[in-house]
Design a protein that fits this description.
Blueprint: H1 4-15, E1 21-24, E2 35-44, E3 47-57, H2 63-77, E4 87-92, H3 97-106, E5 109-112, E6 117-119, E7 126-128, H4 150-158, H5 166-173, H6 177-189, E8 193-196, E9 199-202, H7 205-214, E10 222-227, H8 232-245, E11 250-252, H9 254-261, E12 270-274, H10 278-284, E13 288-289, E14 296-300, E15 311-313, E16 316-318, H11 321-329, H12 335-352
Length: 354
């Protein structure tokens, strides 16, 4: 990162949100040096307090790099006079919520060039989250959660106690070893996995799934809406029989699936994933295409990973609890409520007591 003006602007912008705060003796050409110092002045009525600031500039704001920078700042602070010890701050091009939490855990402030920050010098405090990355870094991967890439997270979440080697992950996810290796490093940088030798496993399954969910929408799938004359349970049973008899890969999803995993779920539409021509399958099932008021939703999976881990429940195939959570969390009409129930009643017990 070589953006002296951006660093200066980000620092002054962040501290301007603290009433009575101002920065003095701010060095020029800050990014020509990885570490620099400044002074914070806090005015409250007639009183003035000054706090030394110690900044560490990092080239990337991945949680792993932020934690390393925090450790280096603390090592420097230990050599300072305790009575004049500086308040440490990391500056990065961008910090995710996870990265901000890492700095908070380490007792270090953070500022990024997108406008996100968390600062707590003395009795002052400011926190801003959710600003968009202005300087996205290219790492040869579109995203941790693009269709193929997300298969790795799916495998890791399917068995959170297992230590996965790259070759094993690649084989299970149906991706290249090169992609699996690159994703392994990215997950380590984000502190979403922990390592033991060359193997990894999910460090925080809860955090990994929530992060994935924030980048996911069920609308990635091809979706067609229909109307069936019979009741929803009757249609689901008939659709399941049709798919079995005709060799069609399928699984109940969203509320149809959740109702079998968590029976308290109420719903008025059937949701069925099917691999094939949605219009042809809808016609075979005697469904009427509609533009409004559907009671049957057929979805063609956007990736083979969607049906990974599907299992039979009550005579029908149902997508995994992971897929149910992803789909429901971004769905209107009480989808988030159903997703949270799945998280607490199904997924977390599996991760805790596999």
């Amino acid at each position: 990162m070589n953006r002296s003006r951006d660093v200066r602007d980000a620092v002054f912008s962040a501290f301007s949100r603290i009433p009575g705060a101002s920065i003095e003796s701010f060095p020029e050409g800050t990014t020509s040096h990885r570490r620099f110092e400044s002074v914070l002045v806090l005015r409250s009525g007639s009183s003035v307090a000054k706090t030394p600031l110690l900044f560490e500039v990092v080239t990337q704001g991945y949680p792993r790099m932020l934690r390393l920078a925090c450790s280096e700042l603390h090592a420097t602070l230990r050599r300072q006079d305790p009575e004049r010890r500086a308040y440490p701050i990391v500056i990065a091009p961008f910090t995710s919520d996870n990265g901000i939490d890492v700095c908070a855990e380490e007792g270090v402030g953070c500022i990024d060039l997108a406008g996100n920050c968390r600062l707590a010098p003395g009795n002052a405090f400011v926190e801003i989250r959710g600003r968009v990355n202005r300087f996205p870094a290219s790492r040869g991967l579109k995203s941790l959660f693009s269709p193929k890439s997300s298969r790795i997270s799916r495998i890791l979440l399917s068995d959170t106690q297992h230590w996965w080697q790259v070759q094993e992950l690649a084989r299970a996810a149906g991706v290249s070893i090169g992609l699996a290796s690159a994703l392994r490093q990215r997950l380590l940088d984000e502190e979403l996995v922990e390592s033991r030798g060359k193997s990894i496993r999910a460090h925080s399954p809860h955090g990994l799934l929530r992060l994935w969910s924030s980048h996911y929408t069920y609308r990635r799938n091809r979706i067609r809406e229909f109307y069936a004359l019979e009741g929803i349970p009757q249609f689901e049973a008939r659709a399941s029989a049709y798919c079995r008899d005709n060799g069609v890969s399928y699984a109940l999803g969203l509320f149809s699936g959740a109702a079998r995993v968590a029976p308290h779920v109420r719903y008025g539409k059937a949701f069925v994933y099917v691999k094939g021509d949605l219009e042809e399958i809808g016609s075979d099932l005697g469904l009427k295409p509609v533009a409004s008021g559907p009671n049957v939703i057929l979805l063609e999976p956007f990736d083979a990973g969607v049906l990974f881990g599907a299992r039979e429940i009550g005579g029908a195939q149902v997508v995994s609890a992971i897929q149910l959570y992803l789909d429901l969390n971004g769905y209107e009409a009480r989808g988030e409520e159903a997703a949270e129930f799945l998280m607490h009643e199904v997924l977390e017990p599996q991760w805790t007591h596999p």
